[in-house]
Amino acid sequence: MTLLLEPYRLRDLTVPNRAWLAPMCQYSAVDGVVGDWHLAHLGARAVGGFGLLLAEATAVAPEGRITPHDAGLWNDDQVTAWRRVTDFVRAQGAAVGVQLAHAGRKASTFRPWSPVQGSVPAAEGGWTTLGPTDLAFPGYAAPAAMTPAQVADVPEQFAAAARRAHAAGFDVVELHAAHGYLLHQFLSPLTNHRTDAYGGTPENRARLLVESVAAVREVWPDGKPLLVRVSATDWTPGGLEADDVAGVLKGLDVDLVDVSTGGLVPATVPVGPGYQVPHARRVRDVSGLPTAAVGLVTSALQAETILRDGAADAVLVGREALRDPHWPLRAAHELGGDVAWAKQYERGAWR
Ligand code: FNR
After folding, report:
1. Rounded Cα gap, residues 264 and 270, in angstroms
2. Which of 181, 198, 275, 345 is catalytic?
3. Which end of the chain is more exposed for a tag (fewer CB within 10 A), N or C?
4. Domains located in the chain, CATH noted
């Protein structure tokens, strides 16, 4: 039996296998509305056999976009556009989730392939970003320190986006609390220097995440799973570590933790094959919650070993899935298991 290709149940959702597509921003939406590119990108990988596809960081509010070209779920046009993508993905037998995000002080930047990098000036369509305080991400424009009313809006923005995600046909929502975006900025002592109920003690720093998860869970259908992506270390002395993050998650109504690292402040990261897997294991052990491992998981055997070792319950594949949209079909071939082929391709499945 091949664990990687075994179904995995989360609430009422049965995900056909444990090879999942990592959320990857495409920076190709217009006013937050996704289009043909997103259908091709996610569609190809649904055909390729991924059991759950996590769509890219999708902003819950316009000022929460990493770039002006990010996908969004703050209005109904965006719902209609996503519906076309989720209908296609689900018709292939895959489950589809959306990563709900607010970039906080890391919003309003140029997209990766722009010749200019850093913050987009107002004259070119940028905006004043929001953060726990006015402390800037190095090299970016300083954010405005969020007022209590602005902080109070955030859980409601996540909840409103989750309602729209349901209408858009998503099976799963993931809250993006990693990579130095808003929820992570509040969670870490390195970036949260507030002196009100949302800063200071670990409990206060976790409050925005706790309230956002609760607000989403309240509106997200009972049978549908809720995931959280965390950075299990800031790779910086004085920053968050896996046990801190796992401690926060332990008490939350979260179905699975997607365990990444870093992104909060510039840091040296010891990147290598499966470099974040030990963090997924630690979060799983301490929180008691299922985890997904991500980060240079590239081969089928490596993925199968991660699952067999009990480090995680699923693996997420990012860049390797850009090289090979059919990564799960190849994994099934290599491991001797089964992944359903699209009927159009079935003749190719002859052994
Ligand atoms: C990413 N990553 C990412 N992460 C996230 O949480 N939300 C996102 O929208 C994005 N966007 C994104 C775009 C692109 C083009 C890449 C390559 C990556 C990070 C991604 O989900 C994953 O965690 C890392 O790429 C590490 O996994 P791999 O690529 O080594 O399998």
Report:
1. 16
2. 181
3. C
4. 10-271+281-289 (3.20.20.70)
